[in-house]
Q: What sequence folds into this?
């Protein structure tokens, strides 16, 4: 089974973005980072995909919006992140 596609919308100097990426990096998960400051045309796409949420980071796993940094850590604490990432499956 192929690894799920992970996308994370970020901006530079965003502490929450750094924390979310650190969590994914610690799990050895490859992800596509979309810097909405370097590519501002992607911000409306992020807002639309995230149901109107305008803050970064916004994390998507296989196209499913899982939320921001706090949401991603909440999934981790609940033991629900690894199955979404195909870890231990």
A:
């Amino acid at each position: 089974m192929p690894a799920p596609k992970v996308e994370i919308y970020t901006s530079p100097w965003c502490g929450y973005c750094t924390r979310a990426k650190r969590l994914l990096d610690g799990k050895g998960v490859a992800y596509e980072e979309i810097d909405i400051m370097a590519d501002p045309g992607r911000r409306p796409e992020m807002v639309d995909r995230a149901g109107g949420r305008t803050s970064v980071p916004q994390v998507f796993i296989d196209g499913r919006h899982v939320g921001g940094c706090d949401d991603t850590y909440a999934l981790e604490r609940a033991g629900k992140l690894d199955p979404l990432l195909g870890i231990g499956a």
Observations:
- The first strand starts at residue 6 and ends at 10.
- The beta strands are 6-10, 32-35, 58-61, 64-67.
- The mean pLDDT is 96.
- The helical segments are 15-26, 42-49, 69-77, 81-85.
